[in-house]
């Protein structure tokens, strides 16, 4: 199923004007606070009636202002996951899960309840009430409730914003499974580059109510000119495969014939993973380094050097593993004599790759 969004709406101090098509999977609305992300989601949900536009999931039209068509929110068949779980406190987990299905139309395609409970790991929580759940458990139940409502579209408005780092790490794998195992399109709002890198099938980068960039996560996050990312969020997104778990606590990945080492991750050997490498964690050398503690040294070719107004520069390096970005000073680039087409080496410390920057399917029982 494909989501098509066309929305124009005037707000005090800002005009929203966006148009994009979202393929199956997770489409991330990415931008700073005030860029229009939640306004767009509310228009899709029917909580805001825009001045003009059209939103449809395949042939299911939610609204079309030109034709005077408007479905009220309760008829839009949406699953909405908020920043907080917003569970009904007087109902058990089991009853909260059932709530959405009570309003699903007859004959609607339904997710298997047992499969959803197993996927989210909440079988042992069914008799509890929300007051006895952790923040991460509440969000997992909220995901389940949204899925069991037989939605045609799932909206997730910064669903991890209210969680600490430990709870975010707990929830992210479930959104990955949602992306890979459920056919319903997901519109996901965030300003976190790590969430974009791990989850996004496609990214809509927003700035002041306009679409600044639309494309795969690897392309959007590698562009320092995209305002939502900024130079500190710029990085590469590599596709890799788990090769070996070593007894010294390291995991070896294979990416295009290159090897990457990082602290042990809870993924099976042979499994595909995404790895985000922040540009500020990459050093460059004009010859193969010797005598370094860093285990990850990738040979490549300089594709581009982009300098800003400050002292820094972003260097794009094509390696066998994929394109890697390095954020260095212009003085360093000049000292190395870097130029397009030049051979160089990208150096990444093993411990610089954080767990939240690695995505894939988590192994059951590994938490």
Automatic annotation (TrEMBL):
<dbReference type="Pfam" id="PF03459">
    <property type="entry name" value="TOBE"/>
</dbReference>
<dbReference type="GO" id="GO:0015098">
    <property type="term" value="F:molybdate ion transmembrane transporter activity"/>
</dbReference>
<keyword id="KW-1003">Cell membrane</keyword>
<keyword id="KW-0500">Molybdenum</keyword>
<dbReference type="GO" id="GO:0005524">
    <property type="term" value="F:ATP binding"/>
</dbReference>
<feature type="domain" description="Mop">
    <location>
        <begin position="291"/>
        <end position="357"/>
    </location>
</feature>
<keyword id="KW-0472">Membrane</keyword>
<dbReference type="InterPro" id="IPR017871">
    <property type="entry name" value="ABC_transporter-like_CS"/>
</dbReference>
<dbReference type="InterPro" id="IPR003439">
    <property type="entry name" value="ABC_transporter-like_ATP-bd"/>
</dbReference>
<dbReference type="InterPro" id="IPR004606">
    <property type="entry name" value="Mop_domain"/>
</dbReference>
<keyword id="KW-0067">ATP-binding</keyword>
<dbReference type="InterPro" id="IPR008995">
    <property type="entry name" value="Mo/tungstate-bd_C_term_dom"/>
</dbReference>
<protein>
    <submittedName>
        <fullName>Molybdenum ABC transporter ATP-binding protein</fullName>
    </submittedName>
</protein>
<dbReference type="GO" id="GO:0016020">
    <property type="term" value="C:membrane"/>
</dbReference>
<feature type="domain" description="ABC transporter">
    <location>
        <begin position="2"/>
        <end position="233"/>
    </location>
</feature>
<keyword id="KW-0547">Nucleotide-binding</keyword>
<dbReference type="InterPro" id="IPR027417">
    <property type="entry name" value="P-loop_NTPase"/>
</dbReference>
<dbReference type="Pfam" id="PF00005">
    <property type="entry name" value="ABC_tran"/>
</dbReference>
<keyword id="KW-1278">Translocase</keyword>
<dbReference type="InterPro" id="IPR050334">
    <property type="entry name" value="Molybdenum_import_ModC"/>
</dbReference>
<dbReference type="GO" id="GO:0140359">
    <property type="term" value="F:ABC-type transporter activity"/>
</dbReference>
<dbReference type="GO" id="GO:0016887">
    <property type="term" value="F:ATP hydrolysis activity"/>
</dbReference>
<keyword id="KW-0997">Cell inner membrane</keyword>
<keyword id="KW-0813">Transport</keyword>
<dbReference type="InterPro" id="IPR003593">
    <property type="entry name" value="AAA+_ATPase"/>
</dbReference>
<dbReference type="InterPro" id="IPR011868">
    <property type="entry name" value="ModC_ABC_ATP-bd"/>
</dbReference>
<dbReference type="InterPro" id="IPR005116">
    <property type="entry name" value="Transp-assoc_OB_typ1"/>
</dbReference>
């Amino acid at each position: 199923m494909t989501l098509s969004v066309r929305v124009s709406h005037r707000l005090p101090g800002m005009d929203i004007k966006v148009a994009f098509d979202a393929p199956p999977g997770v489409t991330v609305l990415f931008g700073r606070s005030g860029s229009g992300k939640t306004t767009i989601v509310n228009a899709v949900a029917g909580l805001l009636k825009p001045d003009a536009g059209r939103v449809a999931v395949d042939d299911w039209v939610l609204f079309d202002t030109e034709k005077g068509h408007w479905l009220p929110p309760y008829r839009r068949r949406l699953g909405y996951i908020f920043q907080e779980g917003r569970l009904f406190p007087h109902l058990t987990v089991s009853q909260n899960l059932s709530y959405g299905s009570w309003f699903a139309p007859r004959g609607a395609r339904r997710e298997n309840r047992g499969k959803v409970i197993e996927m989210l790991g909440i079988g042992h929580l069914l008799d509890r009430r929300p007051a006895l759940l952790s923040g991460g458990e509440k969000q997992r139940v909220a995901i389940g409730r949204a899925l069991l409502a037989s939605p045609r579209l799932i909206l997730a408005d910064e669903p991890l914003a209210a969680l600490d780092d430990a709870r975010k790490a707990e929830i992210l794998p479930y959104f990955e499974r949602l992306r890979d195992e459920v056919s319903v399109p997901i519109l996901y709002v965030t300003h976190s580059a790590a969430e974009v890198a791990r989850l996004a099938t496609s990214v809509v980068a927003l700035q002041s109510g306009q679409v600044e960039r639309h494309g795969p996560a690897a392309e959007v996050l590698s562009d320092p000119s995209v305002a939502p990312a900024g130079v500190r969020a710029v990085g590469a997104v590599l596709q890799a495969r788990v090769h070996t778990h070593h007894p010294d606590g390291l995991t070896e990945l294979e990416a295009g014939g290159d090897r990457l080492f990082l602290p042990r991750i809870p993924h099976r050997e042979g499994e595909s993973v995404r790895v985000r490498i922040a540009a500020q964690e990459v050093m460059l050398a004009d010859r193969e380094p010797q005598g370094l503690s860093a285990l990850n040294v990738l040979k490549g070719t300089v594709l581009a050097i982009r300098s800003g107004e400050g002292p820094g520069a972003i260097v794009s390096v094509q390696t066998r593993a994929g394109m890697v970005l390095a954020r260095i000073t212009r003085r360093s680039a000049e000292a190395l004599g870097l130029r397009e087409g030049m051979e160089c080496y990208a150096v990444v410390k093993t411990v610089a790759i954080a767990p939240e920057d690695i995505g894939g399917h988590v192994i059951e029982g590994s938490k």
